UniProtKB/TrEMBL annotation, chains A, B:
SUPFAM superfamilies: SGNH hydrolase. This is SGNH hydrolase-type esterase domain-containing protein. Keywords: Hydrolase, Lipid degradation, Lipid metabolism. It holds the Pfam family Lipase_GDSL.
Length: 246, 246
C-alpha cells in the first residue's frame, strides 16, 4: 500500500540515519506517506554494486520504488596506485556502470523518479588529518583521493544523467559554493557532517518537489487525528484510504 | 529478502526520525540487516489505531515483521473532562485494545517479537508552560494529562504484557529514575527530547538483544567491502546471500 523510496549508494548512504542524516530527514518528511529504504553499502564502488542490482531491484516486483536515489562515485574515484586502489574504477567504466543502474531501474518501472547524486568534494587536508589520527607517523603522505579527480567523476555523472534524461544533483559543485565547506560539510575530508547531510537532504527534497513528489501533496495513509469522528470513529476509516487526507 | 521491524504508535513514534530519534537510531543500527518501518500516527489512541490493524498487519502477508513495537497510551490517558477529552480511552478499554493488537500480531506470525512500550511520564508543569507558549492567557489552568493517571495506564500496559507473555518496556518508570527527567527527556512535558529518544532507543535495543535479535548477530545482506575479491568480484557474490557476512 505505501510507496517506497530507495536510497542506493555507498557509506554516504549507509550512514544516512546517523544524527541529522539525510536519510532520516527524508523518513521524517515522508512519514505516513512513503517508506524510505536504505540500501547503502559502505566501501562499495559501482562495479561491485552492479552485483546487487537484480537482488535489490527485481524486474518482477509488483511494487517497484516510487523513486530511487543513486549515490556512488566517492569510492570509484579513489586513485589508482594509492592506498584505496582496490576501490578504484576507471571513469569510463563508472559511467557505464551508472548507465546500467539507470537502465535497470527504468526496466523496473518507467515512471520511477531516478535521481543521480554526484560524490561530494574531497578535502585532501582533512583526509590527511584523519589518516594521521588513525595511523600516526605511519599515515601515507599522499591522499588516496583528490578533489580534482573526484570532480571529474562528478562531471561524468552529470553528463550521463543529462544523456539519459534523469534528474541529478551536482553535490561536488553545490557544496563548494559555501565558504569553509571543507570542515563544515565533511568531518574526515570525505564523509558528511550534520551540516553536510542537511545539504544532501535539501537538494534531494528540491528534486523530489520539482518532480511532483512533494510530501505535502501526497495523501496521509489514514485520517489526521483531528478529522476522526470521536462519536463514530469507524465512519472515519470507511472511506477510500487514498482519500484519507481530504 | 530483508526483514522488517515495525514501529506502531502515536506521535512519539511518528516523530521518531527527528534529530536523534529512536526510530532513526534503530534504522542506523540495523542498516544492511533489517528495514525499520514507521507506522506512527500522531494524536491516535488505541481505539482509533485498531481500525488500522488489518491494513498494517494483513494476515495473508508472506512477509510479516520480524518484530513490532507497540507504543500507545500517551493519548488514551488524556483526562476525561479536560481539553484532550476526545482522545481519552478508559483504562480497561485501553487494556483490551492492546490485547487485540497483540493477538493480531501473533496471528500474523507466532514468532514475531512483540514489544509493548508504556507511555512516558508526563510533566504537568511542562505541559502548562507549553500551553501558555501557544495560547498565552487563554491557556487552561488544568493540564489535560497528569503523571499519576498516565502511570496507571503504564501499569496496565505492563500487567497486560505479563499476562500475554510478551516483552515490555516500562518507560514511565524508567525515565523517572533519572533526576531532572521532566526537562531532560521531555521538551513540552510529553514529547521526547533527543535525550528522551536515546532512552527509548537504548531500552528497545536491550529487549531486542535479549530476544536474540541483536544487529551484531544478524548477517550482512551482502559482503563487507573488505571481503570482496577485487580481482574476481563476481565470486564474492555467488555464495548464498545469507552467508555473506562469513
Amino acid at each position: 500500500m505505501r510507496e517506497n523510496i530507495v536510497l542506493f549508494g555507498d557509506s554516504l548512504t549507509e550512514q544516512s540515519f546517523r544524527v541529522n542524516g539525510w536519510g532520516a530527514s527524508l523518513a521524517n518528511t515522508y512519514s505516513r506517506k512513503a517508506d524510505i529504504l536504505v540500501r547503502g553499502y559502505g566501501g562499495y564502488n559501482t562495479r561491485w554494486a552492479l552485483f546487487l542490482l537484480h537482488h535489490l531491484f527485481p524486474l518482477e516486483s509488483t511494487k517497484p520504488p516510487l523513486a530511487t536515489a543513486i549515490f556512488f562515485g566517492a569510492n570509484d574515484s579513489a586513485l589508482s596506485g594509492r592506498t584505496s586502489e582496490r576501490q578504484h574504477v576507471p571513469i569510463q567504466e563508472y559511467k557505464h556502470n551508472l548507465q546500467k543502474m539507470v537502465l535497470r531501474l527504468k526496466s523496473c518501472s518507467p515512471t520511477m523518479l531516478i535521481v543521480l547524486i554526484t560524490p561530494p568534494p574531497v578535502c585532501e587536508e582533512g583526509r590527511r588529518a584523519y589518516a594521521i589520527s588513525l595511523y600516526g607517523n605511519n599515515a601515507r603522505e599522499l591522499s588516496e583521493r583528490t578533489n580534482e579527480v573526484t570532480g571529474q567523476y562528478a562531471n561524468t555523472c552529470v553528463e550521463m544523467a543529462k544523456e539519459m534524461g534523469v534528474a541529478y544533483i551536482n553535490l561536488w559543485s553545490k557544496m563548494q559554493e559555501t565558504e569553509g565547506w571543507q570542515k563544515k560539510f565533511l568531518w574526515d575530508g570525505l564523509h558528511l557532517t550534520p551540516d553536510g547531510n542537511a545539504v544532501v537532504f535539501q537538494e534531494v527534497i528540491k528534486v523530489f518537489n520539482e518532480a511532483g513528489l512533494s510530501a505535502d501533496k501526497m495523501p496521509y495513509d489514514f485520517p489526521h487525528h483531528s478529522k476522526i469522528d470521536d462519536k463514530n470513529p469507524g465512519s472515519s476509516f470507511q472511506q477510500n484510504v487514498c482519500d484519507a487526507s481530504l
